[in-house]
Amino acid sequence: MKKYKLTISFLAVTIAILGLIRTVVANRISTEGVVLDKIEAEATNYKTDNLIYKEKVYALSSLTNISAQAKKIGFVDSKIGFVVGSSLPIAVR
Fold first, then answer.
1. Distance CA 27, CA 25 (A)
2. What's the Cα-to-Cα distance from 47 to each of 57, 59, 82, rounded to whole Å?
3. Which of 53, 85, 88, 93 has the greatest number of C-beta atoms within 10 Å?
4. Which DSSP symbol is given to 10?
């Protein structure tokens, strides 16, 4: 009879310990889910900000914008062609 009481008490303690472990793990998973949601929300905010900044960089670095800014500052296109000199023919006919 003592053997059965010992076995039953051992099983009861094992069940209690496993139940406690299950509760602790479930609580950790639930709090990590909340933190994970916050991190994912921040990541999506950063992705949208990066897209907005990328479009701004593309707009500011476009050639039409650069030429417009140059005209505002006072740069003008040079109408004079630049020639270094006439080159001698490589082969004579």
1. 5
2. 15, 18, 47
3. 53
4. H
C-alpha span between 31 and 24 (Å, rounded)? 11
Alpha-carbon dihedral angle through residues 32, 34, 35, 37, given to the nearest 10 degrees: 120
* Tens digits of pLDDT across the chain (93 residues): 788 888 999 999 999 999 999 999 888 877 777 888 899 999 999 999 999 999 999 988 888 888 888 888 888 776 776 666 666 667 665
69's tokens: 């800014």
What is the rounded CA–CA span in Å between residue 9 and residue 1? 12
Helix (H, G, I), strand (E, B) or coil at 7: helix
How far is the C-alpha of 26 from the C-alpha of 32, rounded, in Å? 10
